[in-house]
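In response to the reviewer comment on reproducibility (Comment 2.3), we provide here a single inverse folding case reported in full, input and output, so that an independent group could reproduce the run without further information from us. The structure tokens appear first.
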């Protein structure tokens, strides 16, 4: 029988408790729920590790128990850093030098490094992801690129496995730690084991990627006042027939100059920016109304509903109907009409 893979699940005060304990329970489920069968050893031996043994309060104020100190661990098979809650100004480098040195030693001795969501911020500080592909929560993508420009980041991807021996594993936004954990189970315990765990916990792979979940927010921190004014106007008038032409007129800039400056400031051409705003509005209407796709197409500025459908799928990765099915609150989760019991009134 192969020895269990030793998993060092790193606990930090910046972390979200749900991700850390979720990963712990899923990887530990072979022991917890006897999924390996009688007499079979579990494929993973999971420990919550940190700089010091004992209780550690996480970002949400909930304490977890660090089971083993990193200075007592000479080798490990997998190092996993769960998602962290970053401050508004982004990740602060240099906060955990001893932990970083330990991660580097484990990597040099053959460990697979894994991050869930924003856990990549800590691992990237070692430099081992430089020149490699990775993913991160799309909300933190700009912060990550500013902090680690040498890492090729793909926030639209659910899971990225890179490195010469596939030893760098990162998962994207929030609950994509499910995908990472199932990947590790399939990789080290087999596909059947991963399918068993997926059924037990009702976990689903994010087959369509993360593009459908991403909310478009145009860049406004570029410092070009003329373009900022155009953006502000556009956010209230993007359904007009020719909004780009109108923006150019209002800017008093030559058309070619305006388009060049707009693209340099926002990273998008004016027409692409308009399309992204229109698709974002269409997403909200698909989520919250019963309007037909043709009606929504017209309301966001497109008379050609077929063109709108193609644009929507190209932008979000889903057809409008599939998007509505995915993100609308399902009937079983909504309050049903009919009489309801009133709470007792105080006398």
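Designed residues, in position order:
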């Amino acid at each position: 029988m192969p020895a269990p893979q030793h998993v060092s699940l790193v606990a930090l005060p910046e972390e979200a408790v749900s991700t850390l304990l979720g990963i712990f329970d899923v990887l530990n489920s072979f022991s917890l729920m006897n999924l390996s069968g009688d007499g079979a050893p579990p494929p993973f031996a999971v420990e919550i590790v940190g700089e010091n043994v004992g209780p550690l309060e996480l970002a949400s104020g909930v304490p977890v128990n660090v089971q083993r100190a990193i200075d007592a661990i000479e080798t490990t098979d997998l190092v996993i850093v769960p998602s962290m809650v970053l401050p508004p100004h982004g990740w602060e480098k240099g906060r955990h030098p001893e932990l970083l040195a330990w991660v580097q030693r484990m990597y040099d001795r053959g460990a697979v490094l894994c991050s869930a969501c924003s856990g990549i911020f800590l691992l990237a500080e070692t430099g081992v992801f430089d020149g490699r592909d990775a993913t991160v929560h799309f909300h933190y993508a700009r912060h990550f690129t500013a902090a680690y420009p040498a890492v090729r980041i793909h926030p639209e991807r659910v899971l990225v496995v890179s490195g010469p021996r596939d030893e760098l594993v990162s998962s994207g936004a929030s609950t994509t730690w499910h995908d990472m954990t199932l990947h590790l189970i399939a990789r080290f315990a087999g596909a059947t084991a991963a399918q068993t765990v997926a059924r037990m916990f009702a976990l689903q792979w994010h087959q369509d990627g993360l593009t459908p979940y991403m909310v478009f927010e145009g860049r406004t921190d570029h410092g070009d006042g003329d373009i900022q004014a155009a953006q502000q106007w556009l956010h209230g008038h993007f359904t007009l027939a020719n909004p780009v032409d109108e923006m150019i007129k209002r800017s008093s800039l030559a058309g070619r100059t305006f388009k060049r400056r707009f693209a340099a400031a926002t990273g998008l051409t004016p027409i692409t920016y308009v399309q992204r705003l229109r698709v974002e509005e269409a997403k909200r209407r698909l989520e919250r109304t019963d309007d037909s796709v043709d009606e929504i197409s017209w309301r966001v500025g497109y008379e050609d509903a077929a063109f709108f459908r193609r644009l929507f799928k190209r932008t979000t990765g889903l057809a409008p109907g599939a998007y509505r099915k995915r993100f609308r609150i399902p009937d079983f989760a909504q309050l049903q009409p009919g009489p309801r019991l009133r709470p007792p009134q105080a006398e």
